Every structure is written in C-alpha cells, then in structure tokens.
User: What shape does this take?
Amino acid sequence: LIPLALLSHTPAVLGLFFKPLLGLERPKAHPLLDATDRSMDRLIAQNRAWTRELKKKKGLLERMHAQEAKYLWIGCSEARVPANQLLGMDPGSVFVHRNIGNLVVNADVNLESVIQYAVSVLGVQDIIVCGHYECEGVYAATQNVELGAPLDNWVRNIRDVIRLHRDELLAIEDKENKYRRLVELNVQEQALNVFKSGVVQEVRSQSVASPSVESIVPRVHALVYDPRDLELIQLDVDYKGALREYDEVCLGSSA
Assistant: This one.
C-alpha cells in the first residue's frame, strides 16, 4: 500500500511506484547479469542468420515442426560434429541423445525415456550407437586415477568393457591401436545394451510376431568415426551370437 502522505506529493513521486509496475521504466540490470546477456548477443544473431538459411529450403521448417525423425542417434557429448551433419541429413531427421562415452546404461532413465519415445511414439526403426576415436571419456576410463563423483561412477561402465575384453586388449601392444580398439568395443557393448532395453525387446518381439513386417525392428547399428576425417565406419558386430545367451531372459534379443 502507498502511504496516504505521499498522495499529496507530485506525480513524479507516484511515478516511482507505478512506472516499474507498468513496464514504463526498465529496471537497472545487475552488472554480471548484463554481461551474461551481452555474451549471448552473438549467438542470437547467428541463430537468426541460420533460420534465414533454413527458410530458403522449401518445406524444411514444416518437416522439422512435424518431427519426422527416422533414426535415433546415441552418441558422445563431444562438441565437434552434430549427428545430422555426420549423416548428411537435414535438421529434424534424427532424434538425438548424447552423453559422455555414448553409454547405454539401464539405470539411466533419461536415455531409457528417449529410447521409449523414439521407438513407441516416433516409430523409429533404426537405432545408431556411435562413438569416435580420441574419445576423452574412453581415455579417462583407462587411467588409474580418481576422477571424482559422479564421473568416476559413469566411466566405470567403460571400465567394465575393459574387463570383459581384457585378453583381447592386452594382446594389442601399440597404445594407440589399443585405445582405438577400446573405442570400438565400447560402442559394440553399448549397442548390445540397446537390445537389452525393455522397450526394444517388446517392440522387436511384436515385430517377430507380425506377418506384415519385412524385417525385425528396431534395428541397431554400431558406428564409429575419426575426428580427423569425419568418415563413419560401421562395425561388424555378431549381435545374434553375442545375445544368444540372453534368449531365455530377453524377449526378441537375438531375433
């Protein structure tokens, strides 16, 4: 409430109360907040330039609005190349999840929700797990150093890959080749983990039972790329052989 004594003063006094409320006077920004706003100016300008280019491609914005993604990409959080650019596809074509080390962890409700939405709602039929050589997450897992929580807990999943393939990795003498092979083995194991996902098992078993389906979906693909040339390499993974031991407990695992 405004004290009655102030009502007898000039309109300028009343303006001190009402101008900010009516949006007639912009409050002074905190110096730190103002600096943060200014740091975004360049990004906003770049966004406007990017959207102008998108509008030149007939129908692209409409297709993006509909979100007709055909692929689910599970990749690393590294910042070099977006998934749709690596695949040579327009924005809106790829549903994307990224984390350190492109891991598929059954306790990660974020990822499991992404898989469920992609498969059950968007009807995605191809799931891509893609890693890259020179991956810092994979390299961190090879070091016997304390990284601190939660990073230590996260890369433990990659250390499990090292444990599973210990003999093969120990047989590789060259450190660079061993590191690159670990990147590939990690992608392989994460692709196998996709098959173990509950929603993927359910949809694949439904696909097996459907006489109208030409191939069992969703399909899972294991890819890697080298940041030095950005060319994708498809890994040859024997999914049926690797998952045969899970037939009794995983629906549609090796189908």
Summary: The chain is about 50% helix and 10% strand. The mean pLDDT is 84.
